[in-house]
Design goal:
Alpha-Beta Plaits, single chain
Amino acid sequence: MIIQETAYARAGLVGNPSDIFNGKTISLLFDRFKAQVKLYETPRLTIVPNDRDLTSFDSIENLVSYRKTFGYYGGIRLIEAIIVRFKEYCDQSGIKLGQKNFTIEYTSDIPFGVGLGGSSSIIKAIFSAMMRFYGLTEKEIPKPIQPNIILEAETKELGINAGPQDRVIVVYGGLVSMDFTKEAYKQNDGLHGNYEKLIPKLLPPLFIAFNEDLSQSSGAVHNIMRYRVSVEHDQKVLEVMSRKAELVDEALSELTKGNKDALGPILSRDFDLRKSIYNIVPANLKIIEIAEAEGAHAKQTGSGGAAIGTYENEDHYSRLQKSYFKNGFSIFKVDVVDYPE
C-alpha cells in the first residue's frame, strides 16, 4: 500500500514572530503551494532525493545558481530529522513501532526561503505518513503535541532557530489563533499553548505577493533577535513582540464582530512594529510599498520574500497585480485550505 500525504504552505497573518517570545499569532494555510509525500513498505529504509537534493550539475554556473535558489541543505536532512524525533518520541512514550522499513518520496513546489513555511510542510507530510504507516492516531500522539515533535526536528536535530507557529498551523490547518504565552502553557501542563480554529469567512479578501529571488534563511533572521534578547538584554525587542501579540487580540475582536475592514490597518501596524526592530532589506520593503502605493495594507508572511495583504474588490486586485508584475513579483489570491476531517 502506498501512503500519500499533503501539507500546504502557510502565511503568518498577525503577530508573528512573537511566537518565539511567548506571544500570540494568527496564521493560515493556503492551497496555492504544497508538499507531497509517498511512503511505502520496503526491505530497507530509503529516502529518495528530489530536485532540491542535486549533487551533479551541468556547470559551475549551474551549481551556483542552484545553491542561490535552494541553499545548501535540501529536503533529505529535514526528513531524516523528523524520522529521528518521531522514533525517539515513540520510544519515550512506550509506543512500539514494529520491525518494518519504508521508502519515502517527496516533492514540494513551495517557494524556498520566502517565508511560506516550506520546511515545516515537508516535515508535517512525512510525520503524518509515518503515523499512518505505523497505525498511530491522536490517541497515541495527541494533536497539540504533534507540532512540538515537528518543531524539535528543526530545533533539536538541525539547530535551526524557529518558533512553534508554523508547526501548529501545518498540523491544524485552516485558520488558527495561537496563544503561546506562559499562562497558556501553564494551563496545559507546560506542554503546549492554546490553539483555536477560526472560520475563514471572517477574513476579508487576501493576496500574497512574493519573489523567490529574495530567499533567505528564517533561522538566521531569528538568531539575531534571540541574541539581542538573551545576550544584549534588548528590552525593545520584547516590547515590540508584546505589542504584536496585542494586535492578535485586537484582530480577533474585530473579526468576530464582523469588522473585516479592520484587519488591513492591523496588518500595516504589525509591519511597522517589525520594521522598528528588524533591518529589512530594500527589496522586502518594496513588496510592502507597492501595496501601500495602491491603497492596500500588507505585512511580511514570515522572515522575508513574501507579503500578505488585503484588497477591496476585483478592480483593486487588478491594480495590485499590475504593479507587482511590473516590479518582478508574483501575486495570487489567498484561498484558505483545511484538512479533511
